[in-house]
Design goal:
Layout lengths: L4 H8 L5 E5 L5 H14 L7 E5 L2 H14 L8 E4 H12 L9 E2 L2 H10 L1 H4 L14 H13 L4 H9 L6 H26 L2 E2 L3 H12 L1 H10 L2 E4 L7 H11 L5 E5 L14 H4 L1 H4 L4 E5 L1 E2 L4 H11 L7 H4 L7 E2 L8 E7 H17 L7 E5 L2 H13 L4 E3 L3 E3 L4 H14 L4 H9 L7 H14 L3 H8 L2 H17 L4 H11 L2 H8 L4 H23 L5 H14 L2 E3 L10 E5 H4 L4 E6 L33 H13 L2 E12 L10 H6 L6 E2 L27 E2 L2 E5 H9 L1 H9 L8 H22 L5 H11 L8 H22 L7 E10 L4 E12 L5 E7 L7 H9 L2 H14 L5 E6 L4 E5 L3 H19 L20
Helix pairs in contact: 1-2, 2-3, 4-10, 5-26, 8-9, 10-11, 10-12, 15-29, 17-18, 19-20, 20-21, 21-22, 24-26, 25-26, 31-32, 31-37, 33-34, 33-35, 34-35
């Protein structure tokens, strides 16, 4: 295809800076390739050309096209990713700056490195006693953001030291920022001392190297006389700074990008780089590509109406350009919006509509379903599968640590590393490594629990040869594990048990087995990385680090990362960038889904005062709008946007604001598809095998439940099944033991005051000291801090609870029957106080130190189902609602009071009714907060 005038102008630029604004579908990659070819053919040596892009795939394709056109001469041209280029420079020149042989920390290695040096980090604010290393992933991500903004440790320390303090909130914020500054400095020092780098260091250290060694910078500027940058709108300040350093002398720099397609702010990109390019390079030529070779004018016009709502923070306004795209294809259908009553009806209609298109002869590969959220992708996949629509899910990410195969293998490692872990042994024996009977193991587990003995001992006494053989195999692994790295041990487990062979055989025909095999493959990669970084790579060392690794997650693709050329493609908007299809469905266009709510990450954000570059265009809603722009411009001939009023039992949803911005008339066709929904797909998922409800819960047709059991079910019925139906014993961690000790101290003080014999402070301190555990902490320093904080808390609690008003009930037991249900609720309330406005206030004491404001306490109390259970129990006992209920965070002194209405109690009654119905039919679906045990239980 011949170049158009604007493309030819860009290709013909030889000297000086240039900004090529390339709209969607205007051929930007072709411009970069053709310019490299022209430079080489005009006599520029290939080794003087540097092209930077974001992915290895893009770099490889670009190099192939250049090589093919220039008869191989381009092999000397450097076409690379930013990280790959930076890493090459560190390897070539690092020794001239005192850098030795460097080890690269991947995500797993970085967390292991931080945990192994935990005490040296001296964390306090970010190391709560309940989970001292729980914030390491957030802190590691924050370090990445700091490096991307080119923040130096000295600048951060100066900023934190200068923060004013006028009240307690200011003092706490200053402490937080000073701790972050110290952490950042210490982390960088530890990395240099131990000769390790993370991914950001591949660029961050390269920039420092070039500043420290200007002679090396001059060599590179002489070598790379022509620079081309792809997707410039997605660069972060660190990447842009590297480009500026290299281009500073010749300034033969061409950047290509489109500010309207910048959708990676969540990983550090800033539009300031492209919006302010002409401020840094005032002589830069402006070239705008607006001839679109992909979509119809109807689609382009809708996209243009949408994106203008991001004005004035757009290049079109700032540089006074015309960015309205002109279609080079014939007119097609106008985009449509379709409205449904339920999300299930929406997805079912899409599946049937696609099936009809395929039946009428449309190629499935020319159809795509796009979603903003992974949940939408998963649901669309399930519905298309149900309707037999041939499709591929592209690049859906799975959390490795939540995959059944990985969870099961970790349980085997636990059972090998800790012979006293009954829970791990149970899961190991009934998991895929051995596949023993779950029913029999449940019976033996309950027997061991009642006898307070190890499950292995109970099994041995049965004389069951199959069970004994499994225990003997475990013992063989235990005998050898001290001499093996954890990766070698894990490999021995899956091979010697036959598990690997069985899994791979199933993977030939079972897609779920394929995902599990991929998960195990990814898991073994993390084990190898752990072995590279850990001081001792034993199974015990790995298990000590496991909580941090699991908390951080580890995503892997589902193996269908490439776009299918034969099937309908289902994928996220971010994965769709740069791709195109004849027909595109954009689903779930509702407020909260597209645009997403609370977009922006974990909450640790680099202070604006420390930003190297930032633009108003980086605001999250503007980026969400750009994401919709990208989604819309993937369609070539037909665009269908859908939304629905309800997602399950959730609140009524509003249509996305983007629909109104996109269509000249903000109307959508309502599709009455409610009665045709196949509800089978949305039924609860049941475990493969379920044990009977124990008599501790069900006796004579009556279910006896505690508040904590009800809350457990509300979070996840599957968790309830493992904890309360199977009744597998769990180890009590330090945090739980500490909470029990504090509750006992408060009860002791209150009862002493009531009897007129107030215990002394020394007695209370001694009581808590005896209860504090010695084991289970991250490190010795963590244990010492935990104990010191506990004793300080005891002093504060003693002063408070010996002086404030006495509750008239302490640890009040209740046992009530719920009307119209075969349910009794049993438990005890920590304290009942007289309420100032009459009636009572029921309080539940919490030892969490993370709740520091009245607003936080109020939010926690508002969402507490436990308080609703107490309100129901009080009403059934006293025929009235409590005037108030509260969570009392005794560590921080914050109290969150709430009221519960009759409506809330009616909702609880409905939940209890469903709970009973499910238990009666042995249905234990996964819930919203499933964290106890992800893998299913297998039966031989």
């Amino acid at each position: 295809m011949q170049l158009n005038d604007a493309q030819q102008t860009a290709v013909d630029v030889t000297y000086g800076p240039a900004l090529v604004v390339a709209g969607a579908g205007t051929g930007k990659t072709r411009v970069i390739v053709e310019r490299i070819i022209r430079l080489i053919r005009s006599g520029v040596k290939p080794e003087h050309i540097l092209a930077l892009t974001f992915t290895e795939k893009a770099a490889g394709e670009m190099l192939d096209r250049v090589s093919e056109a220039s008869l191989g001469a381009a092999l000397e041209t450097t076409i690379a990713t930013y990280n790959g280029f930076g890493n090459d420079l560190l390897e070539r020149y690092g020794s001239e700056w005192g850098l030795g042989s460097l080890r690269l920390l991947g995500d797993t290695g970085q967390l292991v490195f931080l945990r192994e040096h935990f005490d040296e980090l001296e964390l306090d604010y970010f190391a709560p006693i309940s989970s001292p290393d729980g914030q390491l992933k957030n802190l590691a991500d924050y370090v990445s953001l700091l490096k991307q903004q080119l923040v130096s440790p000295e600048a951060y320390e100066h900023y934190a030291a200068a923060l004013p303090v006028t009240d307690e909130a200011d003092a706490l914020e200053k402490k937080k920022q000073q701790e972050l500054a110290t952490f950042y400095k210490t982390y960088l020092e530890l990395c240099r001392t131990n000769q390790v780098i993370d991914y950001d260091d591949q660029i961050y250290l390269t920039i420092q190297l070039l500043h420290a060694r200007p002679n090396i910078l001059r060599q590179l500027q002489a070598q790379y006389q022509y620079l081309l940058v792809d997707e410039f709108q997605d660069t972060n300040p660190m990447q842009s700074a590297l480009i500026d350093l290299l281009a500073d002398k010749e300034q033969n720099l061409m950047v290509v990008g489109d500010d309207d397609q910048s959708i990676y702010g969540w990983r550090g990109a800033t539009l300031a780089n492209i919006l302010d390019f002409k401020k840094r390079y005032p002589k830069a030529k402006d070239i705008t590509l607006i001839e679109n070779y992909r979509s119809t004018q109807h689609i382009l016009d809708a996209a243009y109406r949408l994106i203008q709502n991001n004005n004035p923070d757009r290049l079109e306004v700032i540089n006074k350009l015309d960015k309205r795209l002109h279609a080079q294809t014939s007119d097609g259908l106008a985009p449509t919006a379709r409205h449904f009553y339920t999300f299930e009806a929406e997805l079912t209609w899409i599946a049937e509509d696609i099936a009809a298109r395929i039946q009428n002869g449309q190629d499935p590969a020319h159809i795509a379903v796009l979603a903003r959220r992974n949940q939408g992708i998963q649901r669309a996949h399930e519905v298309l599968e149900l309707h037999g629509v041939p499709h591929a899910v592209v690049g859906l990410q799975n959390d490795m640590y939540k995959q059944p195969a990985v969870r099961q293998l970790i349980e085997v490692l636990r059972a090998i590393g800790d012979p006293l872990d009954n829970l791990a042994l149970f899961h190991t024996l009934c998991g895929p490594a051995f596949g023993l009977s779950q029913d029999e193991l449940s019976r033996l587990s309950a027997q061991a629990n009642r006898a307070h003995e190890l499950l292995g001992s109970t099994i041995t006494q049965t004389g069951n040869d199959v069970f004994k053989a499994a225990l003997e195999q475990l013992e063989q692994w235990r005998l050898h594990h001290a001499d093996m790295n954890v990766g070698d041990l894990a490999y021995a487990v899956i091979t010697e048990s036959g598990w690997k062979q069985r899994l791979y055989e199933h993977a030939e025909s079972d897609t779920d087995a394929v995902v599990q095999a991929q998960a195990l493959s990814e898991f073994f990669k993390t084990l190898k990385e752990f072995e590279r970084i850990a001081t001792i790579a034993s199974v015990q060392s790995y298990l000590a680090n496991l909580a941090v690794l699991e908390a951080s997650g580890n995503s892997f693709g589902d193996g269908t990362l490439d776009i299918s050329e034969a099937l309908v493609n289902v994928l996220s908007v971010h994965k769709a960038k740069g791709l195109e299809w004849d027909t595109v469905y954009v689903i779930d266009c509702t407020e909260g889904s597209f645009p997403m709510r609370n977009y922006g990450g974990s909450g640790l954000a680099v202070p604006l005062e420390l930003h190297a570059a930032r633009s108003g265009a980086d605001e999250s809603m503007a980026e969400e709008r750009r994401s919709m722009y990208v989604a819309v411009t993937r369609a070539k001939r037909e665009l269908v946007l859908t939304y629905s009023d309800k997602h399950g039992n959730g609140a009524h949803r509003k249509p996305s604001r983007f629909l109104g911005e996109m269509f000249e008339q903000a109307t959508a066709e309502t599709v009455d598809h409610q009665d045709q929904v196949n509800l089978e797909l949305f039924a609860p998922r049941v475990t493969a095998q379920t044990a009977a409800v124990p008599d501790t819960i069900l006796r004579d047709g009556l279910y006896t439940l505690s508040a904590s059991q009800i809350e457990c079910w509300d979070n996840c019925p599957r968790d309830f099944y493992y904890k309360h139906i199977l009744s597998i014993p769990e180890p009590e961690g330090p945090a739980a033991t500490y909470g029990t000790a504090i509750h006992a101290a408060i009860e002791h003080i209150s009862k002493g005051r009531r009897s007129g014999k107030v215990p002394s402070l020394e007695e209370i301190v001694d009581l808590v000291k005896r209860a504090l555990p010695q084991a289970g902490y991250t490190s010795v320093r963590t244990r010492e801090r935990a104990h010191a904080q506990a004793l300080q808390s005891v002093h504060n609690l003693y002063e408070r609870f010996t002086t404030e008003a006495l509750p008239f009930e302490v640890e009040q037991w209740f046992d009530v029957r719920v009307p119209d249900l075969p349910v009794r609720i049993k438990g005890r309330m920590d304290a009942v106080y007289p309420h100032t406005g009459g009636g009572v206030e029921i309080r539940d004491y919490k030892t969490s130190s993370g709740v520091r404001t009245p607003e936080q306490a109020k939010r926690r109390a508002t969402s507490s189902l436990q308080l609703t259970v107490y309100a129901l129990a009080w009403q059934l006992q006293h025929d009235e609602l409590p005037a108030s209920l509260a969570l009392d965070f005794v560590e921080t002194g914050q109290i969150g009071p709430v009221r519960r209405t009759q409506k809330a109690l009616d909702t609880l009654h409905t939940k209890l009714e469903r709970m009973v119905d499910n238990m009666q039919t042995s249905v234990y679906p996964l819930g919203k907060k499933h964290d106890y045990c992800v893998h299913p239980v297998y039966d031989a």
